[in-house]
Amino acid sequence: MPITVLIADDQAMVRQGFGALLAAQSDISVVGDAPNGVVAVAEARRLRPDVVLMDVRMPEMNGLEAARTILAAGFDPPVRVLMLTTFDIDDYVYEALRAGASGFLLKDAPAEELVRAVRVVADGQALLAPTVTRRLIDDVTRRRARPVSAPALDTLTPREREVLELVATGMSNAEIATALFVAEQTVKTHVSKVFSKLNLRDRAQAVVLAYESGLVTPG
């Protein structure tokens, strides 16, 4: 089955351009679009797409509020949200990830990055541009002068904590497998257990928790 995508952006040219690019892929189907957050929420409920490409700044309801509403609905299978922004220093980065967005992508990213991002997010993984990751870390450090208590971390085994630390640095499952000298499937199992124990949706939330709790520190 193709990956179904809903595109939410207040600029018609952006919706049309992204739509044409994604529709040209054999494994992706653009099922709808929305000019604002209100319509995006309504269309997400109606269409249940695999991925919503959500512009941050839109009229009537901004992308953050729309993402929160969609993610809070608890659709099964889940509707994943990939935020689109013109500037990597957008103030919504931190809050959107805490709300459960699967990542951020800059609008000026190359076409192949957009296609890859949709596939990655549809697969249940998180995607953050390097500059956005740095912004996220800076935000967590600035907002949390002292680590936040996370008792659930105590439920992790030493290996699971190690895997979480590596996930927080931005490593993929394959990279973690290489670093730990284990099979990639073993890493996937550890990651799944970590997410289950900590009630995390994806890697984006794992990054937030790891830095908030002090498990991982900048630098």
Topology (SSEs and partners):
Elements: E1 3-8, H1 12-23, E2 28-34, H2 37-47, E3 51-55, H3 63-72, E4 80-85, H4 93-99, E5 103-106, H5 111-122, E6 127-128, H6 130-143, H7 158-168, H8 173-180, H9 184-198, H10 203-212
Parallel strand pairs: 1-2, 1-3, 3-4, 4-5, 5-6
Structure description:
By secondary structure, this protein is an alpha/beta fold. It has helices spanning about 10-25, 35-45, 65-70, 95-100, 110-120, 130-145, 160-170, 175-180, 185-200, 205-210, and strands at about 5-10, 30-35, 50-55, 80-85, 105, 125-130. Helix 4 links the parallel strand 4 (about 80-85) and strand 5. The protein is globular. The model has no long low-confidence stretch (mean pLDDT about 85).
Instruction: Sketch the major β-sheet.
Output: 6 strands, parallel
Radius of gyration: 17 Å
Order of helices and strands: EHEHEHEHEHEHHHHH
pLDDT averaged over residues: 84
How many strand segments?
A: 6
Distance between the termini: 42 Å
What multimeric state do the chains show? single chain
Low-confidence blocks of residues: none
β content, as a range?
5-15%
The chain-level structural class is alpha/beta
Overall helicity: 40-55%
The best one-word shape is globular
Neighbour order of strands in the largest sheet = 2-1-3-4-5-6
How many helices? The count is 10
